[in-house]
Design brief:
Blueprint lengths: L14 E3 L5 H7 L2 E6 L10 H13 L8 E5 L3 H13 L2 E7 L4 H9 L3 E5 L4 H14 L4 E2 L7 H17 L6 E5 L4 H13 L4 E7 L27 E5 L1 H15 L5 H16 L4 E6 L15
Parallel strand pairs: 2-10, 3-4, 3-6, 4-5, 7-8, 7-10, 8-9
Antiparallel strand pairs: 1-2
Helix pairs in contact: 2-3, 2-6, 3-4, 6-7, 8-9
């Protein structure tokens, strides 16, 4: 008998209905707001999908082989997922990340055996990405490059999008996702638009001055090459305060313990539901809240 491996546990995550947040208004407007629980993936985030996809397909194409060194700039979740995927597939993983990200993320990456290089907070992800490219130029490893790698949105086109379509029986009218690497929103949008062009795709973006892990507004020169703006119908700005408060509310009122970007996506989903009728609004809970305990977002 062939038993499943940890790799087989990635994907097929639950889709659950919010029961209390916005309940009266949603009932009056005949709306349903649903949360896709990507924190249920084995390494704890939606990034498990593209991490395995990028390594597996690069290996299939002969671009990498077990024992090679992989290098990636990451704000956290992709790094954790790549560290897990590298452990599964037998690669050395070097992750480059800004020093101000949560200690839980760094500890989790190290638990999977990854090596960390911390970069100055002031340089942000842009500096980390530049350093990764420099290291590749020095022959220190291979960059999978989540920002330009077509295997990132491809896996969401192949798995996340079809799961949402099946789980809502094709009733989904609005899809809300935080925009960071943009792999999730691009891949899911491509699938849903093929199924029903009228499905609205909404990206959550940070308001001016807000620092929300997992949600980024990139300078034009750093805009991920995988991003297809023609697939996104609307971008909604969310403040750091609103994202953090909604993350706390999801835990307290719904029992959904998600991260800060998940709170941001949930806040945007509520804004959409407040203006629509007969809508099925889906947002992505992209990771778990225990990844942010040291930040003070959740009360001690």
């Amino acid at each position: 008998m062939n038993y499943p491996t940890i790799e087989d546990a990635v994907g097929k995550t639950p889709l659950v209905q919010l029961q209390r947040i916005g309940a009266q208004d949603n009932l009056a407007r005949e709306n349903v707001v649903l949360a896709k629980l990507e924190g249920n993936n084995p390494a704890g985030s939606v990034k498990d999908r593209p991490a395995l996809s990028m390594i597996r397909r690069a290996q299939e194409r002969g671009e990498i082989k077990p024992g090679d060194t992989l290098i990636e700039a990451t704000s956290g979740n992709t790094g954790i997922a790549l560290a897990m995927a590298a452990a599964i597939k037998g690669y050395r993983m070097v992750l480059i990340m800004p020093e101000d990200l949560s200690i839980e993320r760094a500890q989790t990456m190290k638990a999977f055996g990854a090596e960390l290089i911390l970069t100055p907070r002031s340089g942000g992800m842009e500096y980390a990405r530049d350093l990764a490219d420099k290291m590749v130029g020095q022959g220190k490893g291979v960059v999978l490059d989540q920002f330009a790698n077509a295997d990132n949105p491809r896996i969401h086109y192949e798995t996340t999008g079809p799961e949402l379509w099946e789980q809502t029986a094709g009733r989904i009218t609005h899809f809300v996702s935080a925009m960071g690497t943009t792999g999730t929103i691009t891949g899911v949008a491509r699938f849903l638009k093929e199924k029903n062009p009228s499905v609205q795709i909404i990206g959550a973006q940070p308001a001016e001055g807000s620092r929300i892990p997992g949600i980024r507004k990139w300078p034009q020169e750093y805009l991920p090459r995988i991003y297809d703006a023609t697939l996104v119908d609307e971008e909604v700005l969310v403040t750091q305060d609103d994202a953090e408060e909604m993350a706390r509310r999801l835990a307290r009122e719904e029992g959904i313990f998600g991260g800060i970007s998940s709170g941001g996506a949930a806040w945007v989903a509520q804004q959409i539901a407040a203006r629509e009728k007969n809508a099925t609004v889906v947002f992505v809970v992209c990771d778990r809240g225990d990844r942010y305990l040291s930040t003070g977002v959740f009360p001690a």
